[in-house]
């Protein structure tokens, strides 16, 4: 059996760890009962996880914790620090005003939890992506007033993607603040969900990656990073497969953007792969296999890959023992577990 390294020369920082206040969990349960929002992907996922079954009960006990339950699980897994963020879909199934109010209260509660355990937790600010007046303001408040270390965007919001320039104020704010936006999965939007749903492929098994990789490419192709060249986006799950497609994305996007075939796909200042190497960071969340992690370290750069567990959606305490023994140099391992996360999220 692979053993976890005892007293390693690094702290293990887990960078995609989900949290949710009881208030939002209760609102999810209410939506499951009343079905007021036309989001079948949400109903598929949270219809199960808000139910009265053992998996849901154990999951929800963990996801609301900002104290002993979470810390005990971190200790059992060898995780020293968790970067907490509002779990998908967060506030993003509600109308913009309601979502903004919930984001404010959630950020306050998260900051209070971090203050009680500052050596174990840090976190990211939620915001209402479609609230053009307040999305950037709440990100700024979260960072400058509450000490949060970036923003959490749980991908599409009721089928709307943020490659539309009218919503770019939050990206402008993130660049100005020098903090990243974590682009976290959501269930596929109503426009793309149906082929996934019948075979149970809509969530983490495949649908999450397709949906979030699509969102990331929409942002890239829109010219977002030409407008905000210092903006940094974090992708989990070894990059939602995008690092494995660099050659083909470059080849096809270059050709189609020069062909004037699509109004929404114009030539960019750099190759697509350059943005994926220079404007994105990647975490291992949900991927406990060294081989794909090492591939991303190789093709993107070891200075852009960070550890994450994806707790409590995927809690595998023995995972760190496997990854402690990745066949990489000690500097690469320390960068993976600690140094990159400290730099990206400004963890002191």
In terms of topology, how is this protein built?
Layout: E1 13-19, H1 22-34, H2 40-49, H3 54-63, H4 68-77, E2 81-86, H5 96-116, E3 121-123, H6 135-144, E4 151-153, H7 169-177, E5 181-183, H8 194-197, H9 207-221, H10 224-227, E6 233-235, H11 237-240, H12 246-258, H13 272-278, E7 280-283, H14 290-299, E8 305-306, H15 319-324, H16 330-344
Parallel strand pairs: 1-2, 2-3, 4-5, 5-6, 6-7, 7-8
Helix pairs in contact: 6-7
What's the quick description here?
The protein is an alpha/beta fold.
Question: What report would you give on this structure?
Answer:
- The structure is a single chain.
- The protein is α/β, with parallel strands linked by helices and 348 residues long.
- The chain has helices at 22-34, 40-49, 54-63, 68-77, 96-116, 135-144, 169-177, 194-197, 207-221, 224-227, 237-240, 246-258, 272-278, 290-299, 319-324, 330-344; strands at residues 13-19, 81-86, 121-123, 151-153, 181-183, 233-235, 280-283, 305-306.
- Strands 4-5-6-7-8 form a 5-stranded parallel beta sheet. Strands 1-2-3 form a 3-stranded parallel beta sheet.
- Helix 5 (96-116) links the parallel strand 2 and strand 3 (121-123).
- Helix 6 runs parallel beside helix 7.
- The longest helix has 21 residues, at 96-116.
């Amino acid at each position: 059996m692979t053993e976890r390294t005892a007293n390693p020369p690094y702290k293990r920082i887990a960078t995609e760890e989900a949290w949710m206040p009881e208030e939002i969990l209760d609102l999810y349960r209410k939506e499951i009962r009343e079905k007021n929002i036309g989001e079948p992907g949400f109903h598929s996922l949270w219809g199960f996880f808000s139910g009265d079954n053992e998996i849901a009960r154990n999951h929800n006990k963990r996801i609301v914790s900002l104290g002993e339950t979470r810390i005990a699980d971190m200790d059992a897994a060898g995780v020293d620090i968790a970067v907490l963020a509002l779990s998908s879909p967060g506030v993003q199934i509600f109308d913009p005003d309601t979502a903004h109010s919930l984001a404010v209260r959630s950020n306050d509660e998260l900051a209070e939890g971090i203050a009680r355990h500052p050596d174990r937790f840090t976190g990211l600010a939620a915001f209402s992506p479609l609230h053009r007046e307040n999305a950037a303001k709440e990100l700024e408040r979260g960072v400058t007033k509450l000490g949060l270390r970036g923003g959490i965007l749980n991908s599409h919001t009721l089928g709307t993607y943020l490659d539309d320039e009218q919503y770019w104020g939050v990206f402008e704010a993130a660049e100005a603040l020098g903090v990243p936006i974590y682009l976290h999965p959501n269930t596929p939007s109503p426009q793309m969900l149906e082929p996934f749903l019948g075979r149970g492929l809509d969530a983490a098994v495949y649908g999450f990656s397709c949906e979030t990789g699509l969102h990331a490419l929409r942002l890239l192709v829109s010219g977002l990073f030409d407008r905000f060249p210092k903006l940094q986006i974090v992708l989990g799950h070894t990059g939602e497969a995008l690092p494995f497609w660099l050659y083909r994305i470059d080849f096809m996007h270059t050709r189609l953007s020069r062909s004037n075939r699509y109004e929404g796909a114009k030539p960019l200042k750099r190759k697509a792969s350059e943005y994926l190497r220079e404007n994105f960071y990647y975490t291992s969340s949900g991927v406990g296999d060294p081989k794909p992690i090492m591939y991303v370290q190789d093709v993107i750069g070891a200075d852009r890959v960070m550890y994450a567990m994806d707790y409590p959606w995927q809690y595998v305490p023995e995972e760190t023992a496997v990854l402690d023994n990745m066949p990489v140099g000690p500097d690469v391992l320390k960068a993976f577990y600690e140094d990159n996360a400290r730099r990206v999220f400004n963890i002191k």
